[in-house]
Amino acid sequence: MRKLATIQKILDIKEHFNADNLEIATVLGWQVVVKKGEFQKDQLCVFCEIDSFLPVIPQFEFLRKGYYKKLNHREGFRIRTIKLRQQISQGLVFLIDDFEQLKNIEWQIGDEVTDLLGIVQYELPQKNSVQFLQNIKSFFPSFIPKTDQERIQNIWHKYRKKYGDIKFHVSLKLDGTSATYYYNDGEIGLCSRNYELKLERYDAYHEIEKKYSIFKCLKKYGKNIAIQGEIIGEKIQVNSEKIKGKEFYIFDIYDIDNKRYFLPSEVDIMIRKIFEIYLGPNYLRIPKITILENNSHAVTLNKFESLDAILKTAEGRSLNSDCREGLVFRSEDYVDGQVISFKIISNEFLLKEK
User: Fold this and answer.
1) Which of 2, 84, 228, 260 has its CA 20 to 30 A from that of 149?
2) Which secondary-structure segment (H or E) carries 232?
3) Domain range for 315
4) 3-class SS at 209?
5) Confidence class of residue 295 from pLDDT cuts 50, 70 and 90?
């Protein structure tokens, strides 16, 4: 699960070039605009990431103008990427002593306080949410990882030091809805980002399954794997790619028995094995179902002089849009038996979010 609120250290404080009463704090790899003099370098603080949905309590009331939202009939304050006096600000920082439940505890950097503060993740309300809730079978299967990579701002210093010379495969990140289809010991299943869904219901996930005969192909392939990808198109998010109907782009295939993802170079081969072999010549006439190869190239983290330099790579065109959601980096080889991955979300894209 994503850690939305954690104890972190203020790594740096610098002047805001366009506001005398503001400063810019650096937390992990995030830039946060703060009141001048409120925080000092090396000070521990509570850091709330973007996408945090903060409860209505006195400490957060200053956010009411501009941040107030309702999430599934719950009131709160949504934290997102903004600009304050021409400087990007991502997240919020608070003094630990601002919260009674956090006082008099010997906190360590990285300790999570999400639940203690009543914070949840803000996600855009699901269209046809009643129908979606009726589709839920259970929580996401424990034998498959959820489709969510860590953001580069949270791991930049650690990864550049540890994995600086490793080659990464780079692919587009699309703005849609995550989907997982699996075959495991004779059982088939499909999942959204957080839940396993009923097979007898019908929605976008089932529409894609039927379109590509995914379960039929998985059964014939007969190995315990999970196919993960993004469904984009009409009535999904804002359909920034302007897709007619719905399309499915595979970005990962997970080996359930060996508890690891296939390498990026193996995914395209696996797709052909699973679909082309069992669907035959008709497969070639189906709109391409593939790993995201646009802007794909091998790079190392040592290529980038700074976090800002790698963040800039997230800006650019997507499939059919001038502003892409971002990029995903996956190691071209196994590192300690696993594929290492992370995502970079475009700040330009984040600033357009409502």
Assistant:
1) 84
2) strand 225-233
3) 129-352
4) helix
5) very low
